[in-house]
Fold this sequence. Notes:
Elements: H1 2-18, H2 22-32, H3 34-53, E1 60-69, E2 81-94, H4 98-164, H5 170-205, H6 229-250, E3 255-268, E4 281-290, H7 298-363, H8 369-403, H9 408-413
Antiparallel strand pairs: 1-2, 2-3, 3-4
Helix pairs in contact: 2-4, 3-4, 4-5, 4-6, 4-8, 6-7, 7-8
Amino acid sequence: MKILFKIALVGLVPLTINATSLKSMLNYALEHNSNVKAQGYDISSKSQDFRSASSLLKPTVDVGASYSKLDIDVPDTQIGQTAVGFIKFGMNLYDGGKSKSIKREKRLRVQLAKYSKTDTVKQTLLQIVTLYFNIRTIEDEIKAFRFKSKALLRDYKNTKQKYNLQMITYDEVLKIKSEYEDNKYQIEELKYQREEAYRNLSLLVGKKIKHIRHARFATIKHLHYTPSSTIKALQTNVAILNEGIKQVEANKKPKVRLEDTLSVYGYNDYDRTRLRNLPHTQNKISLTMTMNLYDTSTKAKKRSISFAKRKAREQLKYNSEKEKMLYDLARKRLHTQKVKIASAKAALNMANRVYKSARVKYQNGMIDIITYLDALSKKTINQALYYKALNDYEIAKANYYFVSGDNYRRVISHIR
Length: 416
């Protein structure tokens, strides 16, 4: 027995070495999950967009050149060929506050992208945690059904011997064999579910996961609700729509622009006796003020954004109330899961006692095969339910952490 134990222990060592901890999976996903990386690129894109908006009122310098030629019936008082090179300096002195509003909007959109990334991160981490403990549940169920298989195989051999001695009918042998085959199918189905869960887990983490280590969350103490990044994103969206209204209103305000253009001219094909003192270099300074007195779209645009703002406010109100509700339910779920664990443990203890008693009675011919198999099945099911309750409790703790609005890095630190 000692030798077999050592062999089994050696066989488990590679699995232990290659097993991945929950904490390391979550930390790895923060850097390598494709959805999280995509959100990071979106933040970079919005940041560059903000940088471009921050220079809307800064001076601009343009250079250019033009060439024109007149043909057919050119009067003596006109120039046949003209070439112009110019450099122009321009600056908007005032645009009704539109550029400042655009800049604020772009800054808000950067913040919105950050909140969106936080949402994606939390959803991804919670999915990983859920899959991790679901895999633990499946593996525990496989252990329970394998125990049942061993018991059925042992009983099958015993019943065959009794049948050979003509102590029982062949129906009992068939019933145990049928139960054994059905249990074998259940194990294969669970193996498929485990493989599927591992594939999804690997996709979320960003690397191949084959085995997992045992983990649990620390006991929750003094956790308070704070608005999540989802709520903050909705608040930011309302602020963005406010800026949109300001930009539309800016279209009705005066706009002032300063321009200074230095031009160099070259001429050809003209009457030099009639056209004299042509300018070769000119500098033109212009200060322009414009104001929109009427258009057909400004009012409609403002009303459109106003309705969008009302919609955003209602969404904010609804989601705020919903999030607080989910927080309360998540907290109560913890208590429910504790009760479920205690109930499942009591049921398992009872099922174990019933099974042990039924096994002895069946061996001594005191009960029939149906009663014995029922006791074995209940023991297996109650064992699986107990382990599921334990793992569901860990998922409930993770959900409570995330719903509370706690920082996701702090959530990871609670893993033991």
